[in-house]
């Protein structure tokens, strides 16, 4: 592996640590959540409104359509998504490992025979429909682990555990994992599922998330016991 390949691999791992890249192919319907950075400025003509501080704001914009092509490899891999908007075909090319993509969600898996679906550009209506894929592989992909059952109560601060930053905590919350007690009671299967879903490369075990969570729970229990004793 040369130095360029090594740098590309490091960049890919950095993106995969923040979000996952699901398995998808041409013919699949996907929803891409794109980060859009906007500048908020006060309207100089509107004197009634209070001045708004200038600064960039970030929002998510969904782009849903059919994947008609995938090209490239490694860090340079990209995919093209096509949708029909107000009767007109709209296409966007997304770099797979772009930092401006927040999430890629596969909504439907299509059954096609080609790797490039450019023929869809000349079709409309029923002629442009793609049959849904229902074979064993599609069922396996659709049945992939989606997360935990939603626990009761408010989300807790998982950043108290070393190795979990705010961005990773948000990704864990998408899997309904936002309680310290959940981290403390993770089974081997749970760890494997989280590791695969978030591409953590064994960080849960290496950084001892379970041990840290159990220690935090013990400290919390001890603090509650002291408070009860003080009240009594």
Overview of the molecule:
- The chain is an alpha+beta fold and 232 residues long.
- The chain folds into 2 domains: 3-142, SH3 type barrels, CATH 2.30.30; 158-231.
- 31% of the residues lie in helices and 23% in strands.
- The chain is built from 7 helices and 5 strands, in the order αβββββαααααα.
- It has a 5-stranded antiparallel sheet with strand order 4-3-2-1-5, with no helix packed on it.
- A hairpin with a 2-residue loop joins strand 3 and strand 4.
- The longest helix is centred in the C-terminal third of the chain and has 23 residues, at 209-231.
- It is globular, with a radius of gyration of 23 Å.
- The termini are far apart.
- The model has no long low-confidence stretch (mean pLDDT 86).
List its salient traits.
single chain, 232 residues, alpha+beta, SH3 type barrels, 2 domains, five-stranded antiparallel β-sheet
Task: Summarize the SSE layout with pairings.
Elements: H1 3-16, E1 29-40, E2 55-71, E3 78-85, E4 88-95, E5 101-108, H2 136-142, H3 166-174, H4 180-184, H5 188-198, H6 203-206, H7 209-231
Antiparallel strand pairs: 1-2, 1-5, 2-3, 3-4
């Amino acid at each position: 592996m040369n130095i360029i390949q090594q740098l590309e691999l490091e960049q890919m791992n950095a993106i995969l640590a923040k979000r996952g890249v699901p398995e998808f192919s041409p013919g699949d319907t996907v929803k891409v959540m794109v980060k859009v950075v906007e500048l908020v400025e006060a309207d100089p003509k509107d004197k009634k409104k209070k001045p708004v501080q200038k600064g960039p704001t970030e929002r998510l914009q969904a782009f849903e359509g059919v994947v008609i092509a995938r090209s490239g490899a490694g860090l340079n891999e990209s995919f093209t998504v096509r949708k029909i908007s107000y009767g007109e075909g709209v296409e966007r090319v997304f770099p797979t490992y772009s930092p401006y993509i927040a999430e890629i969600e596969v909504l439907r898996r299509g059954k096609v025979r080609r790797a490039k679906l450019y023929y869809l550009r000349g079709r409309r209506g029923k002629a442009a429909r793609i049959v849904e894929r229902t074979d064993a592989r599609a069922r396996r992909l659709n049945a992939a682990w989606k997360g935990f059952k939603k626990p009761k109560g408010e989300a807790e601060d998982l950043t108290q555990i070393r190795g979990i930053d705010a961005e990773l905590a948000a990704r864990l919350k998408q899997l309904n994992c936002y309680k310290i007690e959940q981290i403390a009671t993770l089974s081997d299967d749970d760890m494997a599922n989280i590791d695969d879903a978030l591409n953590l490369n064994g960080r849960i075990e290496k950084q001892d998330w379970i041990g840290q969570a159990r220690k935090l729970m013990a400290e919390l229990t001890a603090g509650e016991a002291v408070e009860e004793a003080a009240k009594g």
